[in-house]
Amino acid sequence: MKDTHKHRGMRNKLVELLEAKGIQDKKVLNAIRTIPRHLFLDSSFEDHAYQDKAFPISAEQTISQPYTVAFQTELLQVKPNDKILEIGTGSGYQTAVLLHLKARVYTIERQLELFKKTRLFFNKMHYRPKKMIFGDGYKGLPEEAPFDSIIVTAGAPEVPKPLMSQLKVGGRLVIPVGTDEQVMTLFVRKSEKEFEKKELGAFRFVPLLEDKN
Ligand code: SAH
Q: Directed axis angle between helix 93-100 and helix 66-76, to 10°?
């Protein structure tokens, strides 16, 4: 598990690319410049880590494209100590970005194999989310609500109602909505009953799956 000069060089290049694609938040760019994304992939795929591409991880899932991670994170406007719920831990890369921004992160993953693998990896790396939960993120995490923000990293056919209700007033929900292709959608909770909605372009994610039992 090494992070070399070469890796840092590739990350600097990646950050330049993300800036060229429109990412402006310096703290987000700095997180990407710092976090060793290659360690979130199996070592044989290391060379792919700093291309701006999604990549297969285990259990038919993918690590999100760096641009997508940066774009979603920027929309969250993370402040230190924010209490954030993440649906779809996956490789843990998005989680690591949120931790780097000093958020308190609660993250849920429904694939047991991935959940265990990422938990071990986090222990090794000393990444410390507040909670890692094995379960169905469709329901959110009512016992820890409300959250300053909620990020969904899988494509949701529709917006799960519990996620809306678990947001603080002033809080932000960033969620890709759609089946074949998703529209990145930002909800800002204006009051108990009012949400402002913005649609911010097309993306492609693996599906958010609901556990029916
Ligand atoms: N943030 C991750 C993205 C992984 S892809 C990364 O950058 O690596 C999306 C993840 O969402 C997958 O790991 C998938 O298993 C998980 N997922 C899908 N439906 C879910 C649900 N209902 N609850 C929790 N996790 C879910």
A: 40
